[in-house]
Amino acid sequence: MTKIIMHGACGRMGRVITDIVKADPDAEIVAGVDIVGRDDAGYPVFTDINACDVEADVIIDFSNATAVDALLDYAVEKQLPIVLCSTGLSTELLDKVRETSAKIAILKSANMSLGVNTIMGLLKSATKVFVPAGFDVEIVEQHHHTKLDAPSGTALALADAINEAADGQFEYIYNRSDRRAVRDKKELGISAVRAGTIPGTHDVIFAGQDEVIEIRHIAYSRSIFGVGAVSAAKFLAGKKPGMYDMQDVIAAQQE
Predict the structure, then answer these.
(1) Residues designated as active site
(2) CA 27, 28, 31: angle at the middle one, nearest 5?
(3) Peptide bond into 132 cis (omega under 30)
(4) Residue 38 pLDDT
(5) Per the CB 3.0–4.6 Å rule, which of 8, 88, 93, 198 could disulfide with 65?
(6) Is-contact 215 164, C-beta < 8 A?
(7) In this model, does residue 199 exceed pLDDT 80?
(8) For residue 7, what is the DSSP state?
(9) CA 254 to CA 117: how far, in whole Å?
(10) Does the pLDDT of residue 66 top 80, yes or no?
(11) 240: left (phi over 0), alpha (psi -120 to 50) or beta
(12) Quick one: what percent of the chain has pLDDT higher than 90?
């Protein structure tokens, strides 16, 4: 049984993960932390992380970038690994995450979906075939109209996977409205759509002479990210200090 502290227990993902864990016989949320209190969680929710004195095996974080600094300090003090899902971390915070990983296990991924993380491997293989053959590469991502950042962290992670496989030859282009020029072969275009209640759609397009290959991932609900986070928590509990990602989770599941 993996005992979890849910950091960000009152947010949308905190509630989604709470429901997922309720149906999981191998996991239990023993406490939550959120600046907003919650009485219906089924576990104690602390408004101050330093007041949380419940024993656990791992922390799942779906909170806010402003709460991550204190979370890292708490996790080191309690020697608890973290599945770190908060986005929008500053350069300074990212540096602290890497430094903290020398003391505890931290799993950080731009997207917790098992599907997206599997696609990253497919993209690397596809890139090695299509890019040398002269194919152009474009990414189009779509999200709900309340999402603040653009492009999404997932779109950037997909682009990074492609660029890594292409030996870093691409320049990311986010806006062509100020250009009147033929598309350069070293461009990797990334476009964002914000509309309605779209949970998340990512299309990667490899376009060559007279043929187009598209790889698409559609998130129909936020539960896919919650399932991935719980799988990551089970994997990370008891692990040695270091930086981990969802590729490590997938590899462990295949053993």
Answers:
(1) 143, 147
(2) 145
(3) no
(4) 75
(5) 88
(6) no
(7) yes
(8) E
(9) 14
(10) yes
(11) beta
(12) 81
